[in-house]
């Protein structure tokens, strides 16, 4: 288990991925890696998209479209509609810039926008912390099981509910 990263203790990358040049980013590097990934997939990095991503990346815990819209409205001094934030978050999810935590109805910035993984989340019932882990053996197995049922997998969702280390303490 890796020690929590200073300033980003709720997103703990613990990649067990060794078959490719896996890169995790944080802070300003994360924003530019996200911008590069979005532009590479043929989408524009508009000012609004940039603000939504920066706001999302500032959140340690999963944030909802409403959380982000509220914060952006306060920062800009004019109302940002949750619906437009939601559409941008959706675009981020389909382009691997953000990950949706289904059981929390909220989003996290993806710390590895440059490479695709079926991310696994350990979600704390007490504090809402969502620890992000990648384990290719697990996600490959889930996809294989789905395939055995002739199911065409788009996105396996693996979320583990429980207590984080500090809440269990
Ligand atoms: Zn990777
Ligand atoms: Zn991941
Ligand atoms: Zn907790």
Automatic annotation (TrEMBL):
Family stated for the protein in its record: Belongs to the Fur family.
SUPFAM superfamilies assigned to the protein according to its UniProt record, in alphabetical order:
Winged helix' DNA-binding domain (SSF46785)
Q: Which residues bind Fe cation?
A: 118
Sites where the protein binds Zn(2+): 124, 127, 164, 167
Q: Which GO terms describe its molecular function?
A: DNA-binding transcription factor activity; transcription cis-regulatory region binding; zinc ion binding
What are the record keywords, sorted?
DNA-binding, Iron, Metal-binding, Repressor, Transcription, Transcription regulation, Zinc
The protein's matches in InterPro entries, at most eight in alphabetical order, are given as: FUR, Fur_C, WH-like_DNA-bd_sf, WH_DNA-bd_sf
Key word Transcription present: yes
Quote the cofactor binding remark.
Binds 1 zinc ion per subunit. Binds 1 Mn(2+) or Fe(2+) ion per subunit.
An example GO CC term for this entry is: cytosol
- An annotated GO BP: regulation of secondary metabolite biosynthetic process
Organism for this UniProt entry:
Pelagerythrobacter marensis
- Would the keyword Amino-acid biosynthesis turn up in this protein's UniProt record? no
Cofactor(s) listed = Zn(2+); Mn(2+); Fe(2+)
What name does this protein carry? Fur family transcriptional regulator
Mind telling me which PANTHER family this protein's record contains? Answer: ZINC UPTAKE REGULATION PROTEIN (PTHR33202:SF6)
